[in-house]
Design goal:
Layout: H1 6-11, E1 15-23, E2 26-35, E3 38-46, E4 49-50, E5 59-60, H2 61-75, E6 82-90, E7 93-101, E8 107-108, H3 117-136, E9 139-140, E10 149-154, E11 157-162, E12 169-170, H4 174-188, H5 195-210
Antiparallel strand pairs: 1-2, 2-3, 3-7, 4-5, 6-7, 8-10, 9-12, 10-11
Helix pairs in contact: 3-4, 3-5
Amino acid sequence: MTKGDFAYWWSAPGEWVEPPNERRNGWSGMMRVPDGERILYVKRQRNHMCRTWRHPLGWPTASREWSYLHRLRELGVPAPAPVFHDVRRTPEGVEAVLVTEELVGFRALDDQHDLDPTHRAALASEVGRILGRLHGARLQHSSLYGKHIMVRWDGERPQAALIDLEKMRPRLTRRLAADHDLEQLARRQHVLKGEDWATLVRAHAESMASV
């Protein structure tokens, strides 16, 4: 087996960071796998499907995530670097693997509790900027919690990235995409409040208008 084979990634040793759980009449889990000097995250699935207008009979959610990882790279929205993806059919059903690189030095937005007002404002502006680019392309994350926005500090400057794109989908308008995600994020994160949230909304509007 080689790193270009489905079987290699299906059986590569590592530790579960998200043990397989049953959803959508199938299961999906995530492993942390060492690969030389880097860490890779390997998502493994069986019969974990979604339906879209292009795939009315079903499509692995890992395949949808792979597609949107590449789309976000085109848009300049930071996300884990895609490494490998493939699908196979077995007697047990449809199996899929998705391999991405670790976001080195990043921690979840939910963990950014000890920031002073200046740093919180910078973070709010950066999160608003990348979400504006996303929504400007009429894309909705659909699971936008604080744990799905990752943050790395380069000195005084934050960089934000999006993870867990399994539920991402296009919307008819950018406003529909934005309203859904921002309302969801406002309820699901507890770091950016008050004026910080207002800063995020302003940065989001400016970024979305520029796409």
